[in-house]
Amino acid sequence: MTRAARHPALVLGAAALVLVVALHVGVLVGPAGLTVRGVFLELIDALPFVDVDSGLTTRQQAILWNIRMPRVALGALVGAMLAIAGATYQGVFRNPLADPYLLGVSSGAGLGATLAIALGGALGAAGVPVAAFAGGLVAVAATYALGRSVGGMRSEVVIILAGVAVAAFANAAQTFVQQLYDDTLRQVYTWLLGRLSTDGWSDVVVVLPYVVVSAAVILLHRRMLDVMAVGDVEAASLGVSPARVRLVLVCVATLGTAAVVGASGLIGFVGIVVPHAIRLIVGPGHRLLLPLSLMIGAAFLVLADVLARTVMSPAELPIGVVTAAVGAPFFLVVLRRHRGVS
C-alpha cells in the first residue's frame, strides 16, 4: 500500500479540490471577460429567495449560463465517464492497456456518426449523436455475440479478440462510406477528433442519466474488481461469479461510454492516462482508484478543453488533439518505466 492510500479521505479531498478548481477555470477562462466575483454572485443569485446584483451584463449572463457552464458540465461528464470506464475495463480484463474503446465502441460509434453525417439531409444534425450511440452499442453487442459463438466467453482474451475483429469490420465499413460520400469528410473528421460544443443544456441532460447510472453500478462493484484481480478460479472460490461481474461491468461501462461518445465524438487517451496516473499515486486498489478516476478524469478533460479553445484563439483545436498531445508522451513514459522495472 502506498503512503497516499493510507489516507483515503485526504486523497479524495485533494481530488475534489482539483475538480472544483478545474471547473472554475473552465467557466472563467475565455474572451467574454467574466470575473470571479461576477460569476460567484451570479451563482448566488440563482439560489431561491436570493436577489443580488452580479454586475454581469445580459450578454455575459447568456454566455455564462448558455455556453460556458453547459460546456464545462459536458466536459466533466465525458471525462469522468471515460476515465472510470477505462479503469473498469483495465480491472475486468486485467490489462493495463485496456481503454473504454476496447470492444469496438469507438469504431461502431464512428461508423454510426459517419452514416448520419453522410445522410445528413434525412437525419439532420441531431441524428449524429443518436447514430453514434446506437453504433457503439451495436458494435459491442456484436463483439459479445462473436465471442460467445467462438469461445463461449470462457476468458477475457476471447472477448478482446472478438472486439478487434468487430472494430476492423466497422472501420472498413466506415472507410467505404467515406469514399462514397467524400464531400462530408471534413465533417466526419471533425467529429472523430472530438468536440465539446453544446447547444445549451440539451447534451448535458441527455448524457447525465447514463453517466450517473453507469458510475453508480461500477462503484458498487469496486470490491468485486479487487477480488477478480487474483484470477477467475480464485475469485470463483471466494464466491464471486467472474463471468457475471464481467458482463455487468462491461455493459454499464460501455453504455456510459457510448452515451458520452455520442455527445462529444472520439476523445482518446483519457481512459488510459488518468487511471495510470492515479495508480502511480495510490496503487491498484479499486476502492480509491475508481472514485479518483471519476474526479480527476472530469478535471483533466475540462482543463484540456480550456487549452483547446484558448491555444489558437479565436480558432479552436479539436479536444482529441489536446488529449493526444498530453496523453501520448505520458503513455511513453509509463511504458519506459515498466520496461525499466522488468
TrEMBL record:
Alphabetic keyword roster: Cell membrane, Membrane, Transmembrane, Transmembrane helix, Transport
Main location: membrane
Protein name, entry field: Iron ABC transporter permease
Subcellular location, record wording: Cell membrane
InterPro entries cross-referenced by the UniProt entry: ABC_BtuC-like (IPR037294), ABC_transptr_permease_BtuC (IPR000522)
Gene Ontology cellular component annotations, sorted alphabetically: plasma membrane
Keyword Cell membrane attributed: yes
Family affiliation: Belongs to the binding-protein-dependent transport system permease family. FecCD subfamily.
Keyword match Membrane: yes
